[in-house]
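Can anyone check this?
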Amino acid sequence: MPVWVAATLLAGLFQTWRTALQQRLRGQMSVNAAAVVRYLYGVPVGVLLVALYLALVGGSLSAPTGMYLLYCALGGLGQIIGTNLLIMSFAQRGFAVGTAYSKTEAVQAALIALVFLGEGFGALAWLGIAVSVGGTLYLSLAGRVSSLREAAAATRQPSALYGLGAGLAFALCAIAIRAATAELDGPDATLRALETLVVINAMQTLMQGSWLAAREPASVPMLFRSWRSSAQVGALSALGSACWFTGFAHAPVALVRAVGQVEILFTLLFSRFFLKERMKRSDVAGALVVVSGVVLVLLGR
């Protein structure tokens, strides 16, 4: 199995796990504070990952350039903006719609990468991207719209617009991360990805942490009082990001994000086996469509 495929599958698993744990934090602190813990506690985990990689695999760190740091800042800011837009879509009472349209990120990333990075791939991979995104949309909207007219009307909801904006921000974030890893001169793409993880998490801690200190100073002590649960979220976030960044360093962004749609399968499995919720036929059908799309992406790679 290619490195980028394994890394992307693990990224989906870690992200689903982190999201489940982060829901607990949202009952203890504000949305901004819950977001900051991902980066704050992710930095030491990222440093540990780099140290372990150097000890086990070897290699040397690359010297950052000004352009590299710019790409890192843009990638980190893009993730923060995308997350905030997604939360704004939830505030419009459109959790499913907002989430669904944010998942168009794979298609948006494919088009942007084609124009600005020259990343092209075969027709089968394009078809796989479309199928996997379509399956995700179906899973998110099944039972909520009953016709194409209702589906079209849903795209005009504020939650859908915020979701599309979130997808665009996440797509730009992924492309900036890929550009950043390519900017480093080291020969090991995985090590470059891990280095970039540490730099971006540090920048995000500074960016969103400064915002939190200025706008919600009362929330800052909670970041440290909740260190037990916050550290778990930060660790899973760092592991997930390490896998995403590794995928971006080894393969085109659009393909990584298309395969990353399997995240929704992990969500369904978590719901079924841990929360003991019953899966509907539409869930099974949508999951099969997502898997079919991922297979087409891999075949067309």
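Reply from J.R.: I decoded it. DSSP finds 15 helices and no strands in the chain.
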